Automatic annotation (TrEMBL):
Lineage: Eukaryota, Fungi, Dikarya, Ascomycota, Pezizomycotina
Pfam families associated with the record: HSM3_N (PF18795)
Listed Gene3D superfamilies: 1.25.10.50
DNA mismatch repair protein HSM3 N-terminal domain residues: 36-123
Low complexity composition bias: residue spans: 179-190
Full protein name: DNA mismatch repair protein HSM3 N-terminal domain-containing protein
InterPro entries to which the protein is assigned, alphabetical: HSM3_N
Lineage top rank: taxon: Eukaryota
Positions of region (Disordered): 172-196
Length: 447
């Protein structure tokens, strides 16, 4: 293969072959994609020889990513390598927002992750995050892909991206290093905090205040925030199992609903620690989750066929016996073990209350366990954030309502201090006691 030399005299082998192949792909997108040509160039890229290649390769790569019907993993990987030395603003000056939207909406995970990698670059500076926040359609597409993709890798990438971006965009000053940690550092003493127990100072990325522009875009923009709520409530086309009668399609949408809810539960403790008021309060009313409809149908149906969340249909007029037990009796016994529906949301409650108290069908065993994992992370993380009366009241309100009829959650939180390191155990136990009511007070919790 020929050897081509860039202006800086660093040789690039196979560049002419790749550009010719990309021109062929652009002329006819059905041309078979030769992955090796892309891989060969990517392996030769360095920080010094990459910049001269941008004008040659990047426009072609962008066009190929938009038009190829083939899996774009190798072109996307090469594009990621080419863009590595560039900032978010530099990239957006070369590729318009429409290119990011197309990549986010691509059916191929490689294109989704490439677009998210570009958005992640905005976390380098608050001004870059503010620039991204101005791109409403890009943020909207990102949210749908993050919560609506069936690919685990896309969901994980999206969670890291949104968490880091909102951290850098946070309007609060970055927390100072605790005095105890400063003294230990000066004395060069090892402490458990240095061995896997970071302080809130260590967990925060930002080095200065952000503008809060992306927080406003996500939590105050009606279109973006409603999209989040609809995806989580099973009311969006990607997660609404009632929108189709096809059994396999129902399963697909049900799985996507579970994925979306799991993703928001994993990121919410971090977001609550960054800006509790933003996630705890909202003027946008939360929707009724889809599982409420099934539960309501079960309690209001009398002598009619009732569809169940698991796809079964029960006829309460039937005299068919199963193992000697009437169907009606069997259903009544099953319903007696069901956890009750949460109370309706209160005016002004935000995403945090919706996700923690109403989003999850607690009769789904796996999602119930995910919810318990969320509460453990949320309660534990809120302990190390700056103290305020408002914080204590919000955490206490949520925890008290959650444990009122959830004994498994209560037991898990009670045992949380026993699963932490010795140095933190007493403080965590005191915090759990502060925010969780004693059992004898459970009857006064508002439901």
């Amino acid at each position: 293969m020929p050897t081509d030399t860039m202006d800086n005299n660093i040789p690039i082998t196979g560049l002419d072959d790749l550009t010719a192949h990309m021109d062929a792909l652009i002329a006819d997108p059905s041309t078979p994609l030769e992955a090796k040509l892309f891989d060969d160039i990517e392996l030769q890229l360095t920080d010094s020889n990459t910049p001269p290649l941008l004008t040659t390769l990047l426009p072609r790569l962008v066009q190929i990513l938009h038009t190829t019907p083939s899996d774009p993993t190798t072109p996307a990987s090469l594009t990621t390598k080419l863009l590595r030395p560039l900032s978010f603003s530099q990239i957006t000056s070369l590729a318009p927002p429409e290119s990011l939207i197309q990549a986010l909406e691509s059916p191929f995970p490689a294109a989704n992750i490439l677009a998210m990698t570009i958005l992640h670059k905005a976390a380098a500076a608050p001004a870059e995050v503010a620039q991204l926040a101005d791109m409403q359609e890009v943020v909207h597409s990102f949210v749908r892909t993050w919560l609506g993709s069936s690919e685990v890798g896309v969901g994980e990438k999206g969670g890291r991206v949104i968490g880091d971006l909102l951290d850098v965009d946070c309007e609060f000053d970055p927390p100072a290093r605790p005095q105890r940690q400063q003294q230990q550092q000066q004395q060069q003493q090892q402490h458990p905090l240095d061995a896997g127990m970071p302080t809130w100072h260590d967990m925060v990325l930002r080095k200065e205040k952000g503008s809060g522009a992306l927080w406003r875009r996500v939590f105050a923009d009606q279109q973006v925030y409603s999209l989040i709520l609809d995806l989580l409530a099973g009311r969006h086309e990607d997660t609404n199992i009632t929108s189709t009668s096809d059994v396999e399609e129902k399963k697909k949408k049900g799985r996507q609903l579970t994925l979306a809810q799991g993703r928001i539960l994993r990121i919410l403790p971090r977001l609550a620690a960054l800006d509790l008021n933003k996630v705890a309060r909202s003027e946008v009313a939360a929707p009724t989750p889809g599982y409420y409809l099934y539960a309501t149908a079960r309690t209001t149906t009398n002598g009619h066929n009732t569809s169940r969340p698991n796809g079964r249909t029960t006829n309460y007029n039937s005299d068919i016996l199963t193992n000697g037990v009437g169907v009606e009796q069997e259903e009544e016994e099953e319903e007696a073990t069901q956890m009750p529906l949460p109370a309706p949301p209160k005016q002004g409650q935000g995403l945090l209350h919706f996700a923690a108290l109403r989003m999850v069908d607690r009769n789904d065993v796996l999602m119930h366990l995910s919810l318990i994992d969320f509460f453990e992370a949320f309660v534990g993380l809120m302990r190390v954030t700056p103290h305020s009366e408002d914080k204590v009241n919000i955490v206490k309100e949520i925890v008290r309502e959650a444990v009122a009829d959830d004994e498994l959650l209560r037991e898990s939180l009670e045992g949380l201090p026993d699963r932490t390191v010795d140095e933190e155990r007493d403080e965590l136990r005191g915090w759990v006691r502060e925010v969780m009511p004693p059992r004898e007070e459970i009857d006064v919790v508002m439901r």
